[in-house]
Design brief:
The chain is mainly alpha-helical. Helices cover 75% and strands 0% of the residues. It is built from nine helices and no strands.
Length: 211
């Protein structure tokens, strides 16, 4: 029965053929473990998406209810604690793997011609992930979320000329409800577009060689 279903899907969608082509793609001999951090980062991003979608069903984006909704999800919803911890620690791990990936790219000088757009899109992805981390930390609206907002706003306020002008808009833009919209709608759209562009560039130019 399962074979018939697999054959039916293969005839219409061609999943087996597609997967076989991907598996049989030639891998350069110089590729080692450090070349895998881009793929590891993508896997973590997908896991972050799954766990994040799960949590949106139970989170309440209101300052007076945000933390209690997180506690309720963690303590009363089946697997809620697991999803929250996977999402929380996944965010930290994602920053670490992306940073390792960027250092590897920098070490191998893979940012040079003709891969400048690979580097720029990858660096922009890293900045978007940092924004994900900041807005995500704000959402529970506990002591940590409050101080993250205060510290980052104070830091921006130290910038010359424009710092004081940006402080008030930042406090308004990163309220709990607006951080929620930014975190689950705006940033995912941006990161999805950047990922598509980044992987198109990688496919176009291939894996960089050794020094």
């Amino acid at each position: 029965m399962s074979t018939k279903i697999a054959d039916w899907l293969e005839e219409r969608a061609g999943f087996k053929t597609w997967l076989k082509k991907k598996i049989e793609l030639p891998i350069p001999k110089h590729v080692n473990f450090f070349y895998c951090f881009g793929g590891i980062s993508l896997t973590i991003i997908l896991l972050q998406s799954v766990t994040g979608i799960f949590m949106t069903f139970f989170y309440t984006p209101k300052p007076e209810e945000a933390f209690n909704s997180v506690l309720y999800m963690s303590n009363n919803i089946p697997m809620g604690w697991l999803m929250r911890n996977m999402h929380r620690w996944g965010a930290t791990l994602l920053v670490a793997t992306l940073l390792t990936h960027m250092l590897s790219v920098f070490y191998h000088k893979a940012y040079q011609r003709p891969r400048e757009l690979n580097w720029l899109s990858g660096f922009t992805l890293f900045l978007i992930v940092l924004l994900f981390s900041i807005t995500g930390t704000i959402l529970p609206w506990n002591w940590r979320g409050y101080w993250v907002l205060v510290i980052w706003t104070d830091y921006v306020g130290t910038w010359p000329i424009i710092g004081d002008m940006l402080k008030e808009p930042l406090l308004e833009s990163f309220s709990v409800s607006r951080s929620f919209v930014t975190h689950i709608l705006i940033l995912p759209v941006i990161i999805a577009a950047l990922l598509v562009f980044h992987f198109k560039m990688v496919k176009r130019h291939g894996i960089s060689g050794p020094l």
